[in-house]
Design goal:
single chain; alpha/beta; Glucose Oxidase, domain 1; Enzyme I, Chain A, domain 2; TIM Barrel; 3 domains; 8-stranded mixed β-sheet; 8-stranded parallel beta barrel; 23 helices; 16 strands; binds phosphoenolpyruvate; binds magnesium ion
Length: about 575
Amino acid sequence: MADKLKGIAASDGIAVAKAYMLVQPDLSFQKTSVTDTQAEAQRLDDALAESTKELQMIRDKAKQTLGEEEAQVFDAHIMVLADPELVGQIKDSIKTNQVNAESALKEVTDMFISIFEGMEDNPYMQERAADIKDVTKRVLAHLLGKSLPNPAMINEEVIVVAHDLTPSDTAQLDGKYVKAFVTDIGGRTSHSAIMARSLEIPAIVGTKEITQKVSANQMLAVDGIHGDVIIDPTADEIAEFHQAASAYAAQKAEWDKLKNAKTATKDGKHFELAANIGTPKDLTGVLGNGGEGIGLYRTEFLYMDSPDFPTEDDQFKAYKAVLEGMAGKPVVVRTMDIGGDKELPYLQLPKEMNPFLGYRALRISLSELGDGMFRTQIRALLRASVFGNLRIMFPMVATLVEFRAAKKIFLEEKAKLQAEGVEVSETIQVGIMIEIPAAAVIADKFAKEVDFMSIGTNDLIQYTMAADRMNERVSYLYQPYNPSILRLIKHVIDSAHKEGKWAGMCGEMAGDQTAVPLLVGLGLDEFSMSATSILKTRSLMSRLDTNLMKELAEKAVTEADTLEDVVALVSEYVK
Ligand code: PEP
Ligand code: MG
């Protein structure tokens, strides 16, 4: 009988395809003694040849999809495999110590890695150590008859199964072949889930055990709308999923008709529907889905997609492309939010017990380590500002002192550029994300100093409820409709309005169909969401009456005790 699993619905869509296991194989081995050292050396040569062939294929594919510069990383790996010094020493070790190729390989490469890693002031040698580590894994896998997963090499229709996907794994997935992904861990607001929505790949996260239950090439049916996975579906179940996929496509076609329509409630009130993006490439999706602006450009992906810190010019080009692409519509660019689940291989951050409560985002930007990086980003933004309607937003602001420090750097860099004769827009708004409860509580104070506030509910909810957004065991506490969250949101919106400022929301809650009526009632000005949620939200808003929604929101904030009470109220008010 087909096995069923339930997970957290992370990205809409339905797919049926075979499983591709994106799981690291077990590369453990025993050290053994050998008598035929020549045969052992031959095994090593075969594994080296296989690895080289594989790396050349990966290199060619990377060149096609990512460009020459990215592909060069693999040249370095191929060179390691051909390094006579390294290979010679491994062969010597096989011969003199009479050991199997696996242990000779490990012993010699470990030695090189520790020497290179020891040269702490030499980034070139550090990189070589990383290359040798990578290559050793590949050769070892070949010696053990196992294969390493290569998500970038997928060239047939599959459903990716993984324990977890990092944002950089997710970025490598090609929607043409990857029909869906399913993971053991994660929540609706983990970054891989957010990226799946912008890539329009159906996804289910937090199934806890998919990697235990499924093996390579097993058929899977995935419903990313409800969070259901069927392993080895029957013919009837496959037919059912195909039918559901057609129904979903028909629904999407209906929403598509609203692409060029104005966003308005039944009583004609306009709300801005903006999109969240991670790279300039996402603009196609924003324009294709009728986005009225960018409410959140997560610039950290610029840093994560690059082998080293992106230069001021690289950043300038990306920001200019987005501003020009949006042709005068507002673009809120968030300064980098590294840390949490987003790591940079070239920025050695210390390992932390609680990365989401740690050295992250603006905390890095305002520290000595991040100062140069932050100023470079601000300068790039200022230079790009003349090409559109730029708004700059600082993430993870906890105190007014932090905001003032960041604003001061903005003003300093602006003055410097102007002194250099560089043209800079005079109408850049500077605002903050409200995603730390401390900031939400004193939103009235912030409202006097900022130009806008955008509520980041992904973090605001995790911090308010003390529930890690990556941990599926506590994902039930991700409660956007909980009265405590609604009260915080109301306070932020009211505080902004009192000072004549606007309030937006760029957390996933902004596109949540149960939350939208409440947010309309609370008077949120701007809703920023995954581009793929814009049209269904436009459709929903056209059926809402603002006065009724105000009544609904008032009741939710004052009368409801629990999330369930709020959900019941919404279904009473929105038929
Ligand atoms: C948020 O926290 O709601 C947010 C939009 O930022 P991120 O998801 O990138 O942390
Ligand atoms: Mg956040």
